Amino acid sequence: MSQITFLALDERMLELAQRTLKDDCADIRFETGLSGEGVARVRALQEQGTEIVITRGITAAAIHAEGIDVVIVEIAVTAFDVIRSIERARHHGKQIAVVVFPSMAKGLDSLASAMGIDLRIHILASEQDADATVAAAIGAGANAIVGGYIAEIAARKQGCPFELIENGQEGILQAVAEARLIADGQNLEKAKAAIFRAVLDYSYDGIISADRNGKIFFFNRSAERIAGRKGQELIGKAVGDAWPGLGVADVIASRQEELGQIIPINGTDVLCNKVPIIIRDECVGVVVTFQDIAQIQKTEAHVRRRIFASGHVAHFSFADIVTESDALKQTIETAKDYALSASSILITGETGCGKELFAQSCHNYSHCHDGPFVAINCAALPTQILESELFGYVAGAFTGANPKGKPGVFEMAHGGTIFLDEIGEIDLGIQGKLLRVLEEKRVMRLGSDRLIPVSVRVIAATNKNLKQLVEQGGFRSDLYYRLNVLQLRLPPLRARKEDIGPLAKRFLREENGLGRRQTLSAPALKALQTHDWPGNVRELRNIVQRLLVTSKQHTIDAATVHRVLIDEDDSPRAHAESPAYDEAPEIRKALAQARGKRAEAARLLGIDRSTLWRKIKQYGIT
What we know:
By secondary structure, the chain is of the alpha/beta class. It has five domains: 4-76 and 171-183, 3-Layer(aba) Sandwich (Rossmann fold); 79-166, 3-Layer(aba) Sandwich (Rossmann fold); 204-286, 2-Layer Sandwich (Beta-Lactamase); 318-491, Rossmann fold (3-Layer(aba) Sandwich), CATH 3.40.50; 495-619, Helicase, Ruva Protein, domain 3 (Orthogonal Bundle). α14 packs across α15 (355-365) and α27 (598-605) crosses α28. It has a five-stranded antiparallel beta sheet with strand order 10-9-13-12-11. Strands 15-18-21-14-22 form a five-stranded parallel beta sheet. The chain has a four-stranded parallel beta sheet with strand order 2-1-3-4, sandwiched between helices. The chain is built from 28 helices and 24 strands. β11 (258-265) and β12 (268-279) form a beta hairpin.
């Protein structure tokens, strides 16, 4: 498929063009066709990709007259072309007639004078006048006729000598060079248009363009999606007919842009902008853009998560909770039910019993698990700093603030979960602001007067009796009831002693390092169950770490556990309530079961034979 076609008027012209261009013609298609025949040929070639036609004279004029949408590059007839033809005609007689169309007649009078010949010029008004015009020239005494292809046909019919004004190689080369320049320009414009079209088509915004009369001439794919209509159905139609309330005519008349309007289109609320197109102080049209508000909100949430909530991820799920306790298993099932609700959750329990573990698990089990999980310890920060962390601040809000301002944790948690740990420690003043955010679902940064909408799931936790704090005036009752929609009470570790062993083993696996593989003997695990664990799971992990560091044994025994637990609680009451653990009965029982075989008894006790030997001597067991 060639973009350029060389349309020769006959085989002579075709042969000359091919000879002139030689091997430099890979991008050109060669065809023949004179006048009407040439027009028909160009129509067919246009469907095959021809955009530029190189031809001459009457054929060029005929193609143009038919309005065919191709670029016509006319091969210019030079003075040298005419002179060569006249010189050949002089062999037929002194009086020579030139029969040409007006476009070829320029300068012929001057040429005749310069050559000193009797040159009669006859102008062809149309192709149909050729026979009559040639006859008139013969009647006026012409010995020979010089002209183009149409004049040649008429002269041959009337038997008059004729010399064709043929194009020279220079005219052909010039026309081809011009056609190639035009093709390069067209291809560049096509590339620009394709890029521009791709940008518009793949824009998330719906874009419609209309002319000064409000007629649609551009409709991109996003506009089709939002409007629920095909652009081809609307091209050429008035915007006002498609959407009567859009007000495009007002924008064209006023030449003033209208931005940020919310209008319904195809059952969807969209943000609409209308901008007039002004060229040379004249409004020539209007561009209308649509943005799906739901998509804007979705994008905003994504941006907030990427920019503000980086790293705010819940790492734990319900599967990470180690338990053999029926009570805690029931608590987990309740927590799963709560997680699927959008209501606030208040987690209560002693320190170290896993409140954040449950909060993260609830988030990962919830419908907003793809959103951020942002935790803040309300007891860890002074009041002023806590307020700025919760609600954020604008630039210059207070001395020492980030000069660019900072979003608060509610903004960071948009589309996800905010975990307010130790909620019972916050100041009454902040409690009021927190209540407003929870009720209005909007947050105002410190130093700002702009409200920012937030969609956040709230989980709060405390180791205090909030109901009692409310009665004492230390906690707002309205905030308490706002937070305490779904309450989750976590049992302390002492109430689920069956979990101490599995938890201790897990912590042991996690903390073992540098090639060490220490274990806890069965009596050692029983010894752990004698402790009250006021620090709950956190204290248990600490004790396991301490055992690993202080014990040199491969298997940690009960005496070592007891010694570490005594060190853990140095109060007189603790010493009184924690008597030394007597291992002797356990050792005697194991020896009896093993029928005196110390290796087997050591295996039953989960200790080394050397350790058993030492303990037998220590307790005087025979």
